[in-house]
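Teaching assistant here, posting this on the class forum so everyone can see the example we discussed in section. The complex has two components, and the goal was to see what a joint structure prediction looks like when all of them are supplied at once.
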Amino acid sequence: MSHPADLNIDRIAELSRLALTPEEKARFSAQLGSVLGHIEQLAKVDVAGVEPTAHAFPLHNVWAIDVAQPGLAVADALRNAPSQRDNMIVVPKVVE
Amino acid sequence: MNYEAVIGLEVHIQIKTHSKVFTRVGAGYGHEPNTLTDPVVLALPGTLPVMNKAALDAIIKAGLLLGCEIAAVCKWDRKQYFYPDSPKNYQISQYDQPICIGGFVEIELPGSARNVMGEHKNIPLTRIHLEEDVGKLNHHVIDSLVDYNRAGTPLMEIVSDPAMHTAEEAFAYLTSIRNTMIYGGISDCDMEKGQLRCDANISIRPVGETKLGTKVELKNLNSISFVRDGIAHEIKRQLAVVAAGGKLIQETRDYDGQTGTSQSLRSKEMAHDYRYFPDPDLMPVHVDVAWKNSLRDTCPELPFDKQRRFLSEYAVPYTITSVLIPERKLGDFFEAAAKLAGPGRAQAVGNWIANDFLRELGAGKIALAAAKITPAHLAALVQLVDAGTLLNAAAKEVFAEMFATGEAPAAIVARLGLTASATDAGELETWCRDAIAANPKALTEFKAGKDSAINAFKGPIMKAAKGKANPKLVDEALRRLLASL
């Protein structure tokens, strides 16, 4: 199935922090395109006269009262960080 | 050609809650890095957000204070963006159905002098919505460090219409919002702690034009004065570009309050597509009349309403009210003391607070809540002075003691023996007669109707009394004698 024209595999790879080879780009473009194409079948449904909704269930006002609970220990919070310093996560410099 | 500036402000205010907006780990400022996180804050797989009822209460109250319509139904949307301050790669916000719609902020512009009330006007609001704050990035030479303590703090964004035209209006707008939110207990609005942050959209257009010009977004305005200075600077910059025949470009600029300069951050050509869509993890909020009314009952009198009431009910000067109003508890203190002191004594109460009390609090770096003086003690002091029991100089001494010890003024007066010397009536009358006899010119003037001529007699009397006479009794004795002459 041909993929939608607005599928920008370079941008998706950049946002996902993935370095893809040209072959991978071609393969993943086709795969993602097929997923999107599948979803695009929804566009064929006639929704004239149907009120838009964000949820399928008629639930609202689901909340908790404002009482603080203990969180994660710093060591646990940082366990997935590839790099850390001063109890903070190190990321590439984001401003010049 | 004459140009006018058009300014719209986006004000972000952190709501003061115990826990975060979509999870229950604690929220707060000044904690060790990454000690206020949990699996929801860090967006670990399988976690689900749950709304904080107190944050909803607070933003509805904020909307009521600012005259907004509260939406019967609102929902949550994901704003997608990729930046290390957001672990989820999206921010939960409200896109097309915000919780508060419309409304206005009453502002006061500078008066012609410090003691003159300035012009008031209402700045219309577009909307107020609730979202989550993001983490904090600490930039270093070769990398950046991320602290997620702030991530998930309830944050409301107050968006004004593009309806302001001067930096002074923007300054007054922010001041009014801050005072109102502090009054409502919604936020402490401390800009140094990032509890109140402001971005400004600024454009210029020929006077008479109704279309908006190319807008520049000014960021990092981290004090209310910097907001004013930054906007004034940006208006000047835009006028200069146009005057030189240049063309303005839509961009984001960073204002440096220390140097008073700005630089371009990024042009809006690379504008983000945030791809908003409804958050499937959060259910909509329905606000009914009963909920709204219960919050309306908790709304305090607005600062400007209180000021107008102080001016009319207590007849205190504008300058005093503008000192009393910004801090709600100070206004409350004044009102309690003024009521206890009784009619005609409110101005004296206001003077003590605006001058002596605030000076002592400032000098000792003491919070009002921790002060030892009570409204009842201040009222009693004013009454002692008014009754002539205490002279002004002695009253200052009593005040200092009250401030230091929290004792009642009468007890201090007795302990220090500060009661105005009960001047012997006969002696006082002799001094008065001598003073009148020594100044026939003033006597003639007084008799001719010049009331202020009476003051000419008072100096010699005070001198004779070595400054210990009660001015009120002196005045009374003089008038009695003058009337009989």
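For the discussion questions: The radius of gyration of chain B is 30 Å. Chain B has 15 helices and 18 strands. Think about how each of these relates to the inputs above.
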